[in-house]
Amino acid sequence: MRLVNEGLAFLLELLALAALAYWGFATGDGIVWKFVLGIGAPVVAAVVWGLFAAPRASFGLPVVGVLAVKAVFFGAAVVALVVTGHPVLGALLGVVAVANVSYTTATRGKRSQELGDHPVA
């Protein structure tokens, strides 16, 4: 089950980046801004994710900090879908992301306690 959930987590991350790219290309005013936002938004989000929320993040945050980064990341993707006219997809992404992050956080904390390690979200 853990492997399936980790695969789903990766897919959700890719979908969130795609939603941000779609938003940028859809809302940018003029071709230059479309490319700046369409490429820039997902790149910035991916960098922040890699620094603070990835399993091997560069900066270790407490669980609450990691959850906050994930909330902003997925929240931005949900908002991006809603404002571009896809509220059902946004809601679906949000619900599945919350379920996935909740399950991952709960099971990693449990597994870490069993191994005597510190929990990582």
UniProtKB/TrEMBL annotation:
Transmembrane domains' residue ranges: 7-25, 31-52, 59-82, 88-106
Keyword field: Membrane, Transmembrane, Transmembrane helix
Domain of life: Bacteria
InterPro entries named in the record: DUF2568 (IPR021214)
Identification of the protein by name: DUF2568 domain-containing protein
UniProt organism field: Amycolatopsis bartoniae
